[in-house]
């Protein structure tokens, strides 16, 4: 995984990267992979997050995306993991819905979670 990120023009292939990163034991590589996608493939970030979501620390992820002001970019990921009823996920998604003035979406989110 590190080699693919260090040499993206020669070694990185999306399908292969996502397959390999889910098999690593070191969860820290997930966050390096997320940063790699932010730097090189931001439009594919949600695909990576969905693949990694079963083993991710979602609170840490929300804090990371909040810190770097990327919450809007990962809204599909937030929606997909909202069923976990994680406080950080719910607050981040609800904040986005308020910013977007999507009050119907906010009502649905609050009622469900």
Automatic annotation (TrEMBL):
One MF annotation (Gene Ontology) recorded for this entry = clathrin light chain binding
Which Gene Ontology terms describe the biological processes this protein takes part in? intracellular protein transport; receptor-mediated endocytosis; vesicle organization
A Pfam family it matches: Clathrin
List, alphabetically, the InterPro entries matched.
ARM-type_fold (IPR016024), CHCR (IPR055358), Clathrin_H-chain/VPS_repeat (IPR000547), TPR-like_helical_dom_sf (IPR011990)
GO CC field: cell cortex; clathrin complex; clathrin-coated endocytic vesicle
Domain of life of the organism in this record?
Answer: Eukaryota
Q: Where are the CHCR repeats?
A: 49-113
**Name this polypeptide is given:** Clathrin heavy chain
**What lineage is this protein's organism placed in?**
Eukaryota, Metazoa, Ecdysozoa, Arthropoda, Crustacea
């Amino acid at each position: 995984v590190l080699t693919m990120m260090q040499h993206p023009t020669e070694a990185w292939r999306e399908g292969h990267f996502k397959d390999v990163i889910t098999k690593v034991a070191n969860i820290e590589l997930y966050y390096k992979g997320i940063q790699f996608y932010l730097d090189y493939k931001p439009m594919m970030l949600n695909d990576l997050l969905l693949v990694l979501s079963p083993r991710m620390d979602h609170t840490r992820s929300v804090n990371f995306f909040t810190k770097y002001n990327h919450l809007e970019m990962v809204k599909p990921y937030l929606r997909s993991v909202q069923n976990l009823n994680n406080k950080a996920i719910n607050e981040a998604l609800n904040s986005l819905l308020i910013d977007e003035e999507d009050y119907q979406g906010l009502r649905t989110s609050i009622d469900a979670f």
